[in-house]
## 1
Amino acid sequence: MQIVVLPGDGIGPEITTATSGVLRAASERFQLDLRLEEHAVGHASLKQFGTTVRPELLDIVRAADGLILGPTATFDFKDEAHGEINPSRHFRKSLDLYANVRPARTYAGRPGRLGEFDLVVVRENTEGFYADRNMEQGNGEILVTPDVVISLRRITRLCCERIAHAACRLAMKRRKHLTIVHKANVLKLGDGMFLDICRAAAKGYPGLEVDDILVDAMMAHVVRNPDRFDVIVATNMFGDILSDLTAELSGSLGLGGSLNVGDRYAMAQAAHGSAPDIAGQDVANPISLILSTALLLAWHGEKSGAVRYEEAARAIEAAVAKALREGRATRDVGGKLGTIAAGAAIAEVLQAE
Ligand code: NAD
């Protein structure tokens, strides 16, 4: 399996180094023949090539079997005309990665804030309330007068259908329970369509239990009783906010894996940003990116029919759980290790099993 690795900015290089070590250990144990091919994006690329993403990178990624994108300093990249492209947006859009899959679970010995749970938020990733996602040209926010802004939210039948089916398929492989999160009482047309389509899609999956909850009430439900949820499907912004909450409830935002998936391509990405405040200090938690790459391996295994990739993904998740249980982790999750040592501890557990 050929994987393109783009380390990114801030803590990106440190956590991708730690992640690559875990992948090499998994490759050895499960004979995955992983080939990691590293290229610059973000500030490193801007400095070297005058753009945060070289145009040829897209073909390189398309020719590979998967992409790992480290966090990038997206807030710094404002002027596309001067090469300041948001790398995450570029690949998400160019590769049509319409589903953002974000698991959140607690770990033995490191309980979350609210007892044990294991859920996944499946978030629509290509439209919704995001100014950069809805327009072929221009931006989804309009300054009508200096004091009036209109922000557009696009919802389409196609995007609702494909995210609904992605969530249903995932729920069928888990505990067969789907929760649709929406605000159809107010956004009657957009969320009304999303809700109707999700309900209709779910009917095609025998045994799938479905419920739906208004997004505001959902915040109370998920804090009160997160273990009642299995797979949660939501439009883009609701899913974005909800998945940060569920990751944090699991113990830390740094424990949340994230995979951006389309019909042909997938991109593993940490749930957090480039954390410039701790960059270069060897203190960042690499687990989010490590778990994201486990999701990438599982996706590849399912797509190619090669079971050993899914086994490797499960083994990485188990190794993360064991390292956390033993306290061999970074300080944000109660450990004392640095970024590289925390990655090495997970690789070691993986090799020793
Ligand atoms: P952030 O997620 O980078 O950091 C928020 C807080 O969490 C900081 O205190 C940071 O130190 C901490 N943190 C983040 N990741 C951590 C880790 N792995 N281990 C330990 N602590 C961690 O959010 P921010 O500071 O708002 O954004 C910084 C930059 O990242 C901005 O340019 C933003 O646009 C960008 N960003 C990029 C992505 C992405 O590439 N996917 C996502 C979010 C933000």
## 2
Amino acid sequence: MAKERVLTGITTTGTPHLGNYVGAIRPAIQASHSDSVDSFFFLADYHALIKCQDPALVRQSSKEIAATWLALGLDPDEAVFYRQSDIPQITELTWVLCCNAAKGLMNRAHAYKAAVQANLESGDDPDFAVTMGLFSYPVLMAADILMFNANKIPVGKDQIQHVEMARDIAQRFNHNFADVFTLPEAVVGDDSAVLQGLDGRKMSKSYNNTIPLFDTEKKLRKSINKIKTNLLEPGEPKDPDDSTVFQLWTAFASPRETERMRADFVNGIAWGEAKKQLFELINAELSDARLRYNQLMEDPAHIESVLQKGAERARIHSAALMKKVREAVGISSIG
Ligand code: TRP
């Protein structure tokens, strides 16, 4: 049986946090070790430009995200690990797909619609601050996906629509020209993988409620101490299902440890004690990786060479696919 090809991109605009780890990075790396999948992971740095015009931040984030994945055990000989901007065929394909994607389809994209809606609400021109990059974002993402004939695309809920658009665009191209593209499908983790942040809402950079993945031990402890709880005293029963501390616990603990903590909640464990145990649990899972992360961050040349090797492997696929695409649309040598 052919291997399943799993592909996902990470926009390089922030520092990875525990929510990214539990919801995306940890499951992706685990899956990449399986013999039945072929994994493609990349730094979506051209996507970063859509929402970030700060070059230093894009650069720093690319370095941090690459170091994070490597520190957490991604094996770059196993998975193809690369930077989007090192694959020139992705932007070439973006143009060809732009000429096939319906504008009306892009009009319906959530990110663009939300921007227009916000403008209308504030009485601005509907297109105020809307760039062509934001508008065409789903086409670039379609090129990322279709370039490598990926079958399964692990994404957050907010990205499902984009994967469906990639599928639409592929179908249309295959119908109009030649059967070049594999039709991709989104794979969404279950809700329990969506971690709560310090304030109990979804952990997200946009809510400013994150716990960074590789801060120092001291800062990790401090962040955990900041998680919002209620005023119940030690000895008073606490509801595990209404607690961010418990939710984080379940994301790191074995089922047995989870049942034990559930009982401790019901028996009135003190918040301070629960947080202390939570810190120890999370720290135990992350401390070796933190060391490797710090070493990698000190050795950017090594990270760069890993990415270059990954790009070479990726370009074998992208060059072959782009050749097919060009031929299909009539761009080829004349003689
Ligand atoms: N747009 C995605 C996000 O912000 C990142 C991304 C870019 C991506 N290209 C992709 C994800 C291709 C999956 C496949 O999360």
